[in-house]
Amino acid sequence: MSLFNVFNISGSAMSAQSQRLNTVASNLANADSATSANGTPYKSKQVIFGATPSNSPDASGVKVLKVIEDTAPPKVLYDPKHPMADEKGYVTMPNVNVTEEMVNMISASRAYQNNVETMNAAKTMLLKTLTIGQQ
Amino acid sequence: MLNKLDAALSFHQNALRVRGQRQELIAANIANADTPNYKARDIDFKSAMQGAATGISREAFNVAKTSSQHLNGMPLQGPSNGAPGASLFRPIIQGSVDGNTVDMDVERNQFVDNAIRYEASLTMINGQLKKLLAAIQGQ
């Protein structure tokens, strides 16, 4: 029954979008982390979406293919008092673009809402279908 | 008698099936709104309905029939590529740099349109059933 597959498809998109929101949260939280577990500044992370086959040959769901590290150059800040500063007084800061991440956050949250609406519509249609023949 | 009941209801049965398939496709388009290189798909409802009406057993799988009254097997999935009612790619109105062709305005519009038409078919089936019941019970 194709309408039940809507739940799988929208569900896969919701989990992919929430993973995207997760990386946005991580990037925003670490926008000022000058160091990390391996001693280098935090690197911005981005998710790559890909279409994945569902139960139907034509309709595909979504999955996160991989999480990549942004290759943008790190921000360099002049702060001689900073403990991580080099001999010239520059600190290497994460390459997180806060504006971009905020836009990413809004986009992910809207896409999530869209899929919730899709799922609700499919649910309403299925429930209406169950009332066929009832007085 | 049973055949006539089936014929009376089969149009809306097919309509509901095709509407359901279309709803699934549009849901997949909305789900993949941010997937790079995803191409939005849809079905031509008219040709899908014609395909469904002219012969549901067109692509049916073969089942062993031991009596002439046995029904043909139903197709598991919708028609394959090229057949009437197969899923097609939506024309690109405003392309995007990542190769995605999903236009959310079009998709939302078609999604709501399809859902309302699905419910219209349901309402009409209910009306037909009520009429049949009224005829049977003679009230």
Number of strand elements of chain B: 2
Residues in β-strands, percent of chain B? under 5%
Radius of gyration of chain B: 19 Å
Largest sheet, spatial ordering of strands of chain A? 1-2
Structural category of chain B is mainly alpha
- What profile does the largest beta sheet of chain A have? 2 strands, antiparallel
Q: Tally the helices of chain B: what do you get?
A: 3
Whole-number mean pLDDT of chain A: 92
Which geometry of chain A do the CA atoms define?
Answer: elongated
- Assembly level: heterodimer
- Mean pLDDT of chain B, to the nearest integer, reads 83
**Percent helix among the residues of chain B?**
40-55%
Number of helices of chain A: 2
Distance between the termini of chain B: 21 Å
Order of secondary-structure elements of chain B: HEHEH
Low-pLDDT sequence parts of chain B: none
* Silhouette of chain B: elongated
Q: Record the strand order, biggest sheet of chain B.
A: 1-2
Radius of gyration of chain A: 22 Å
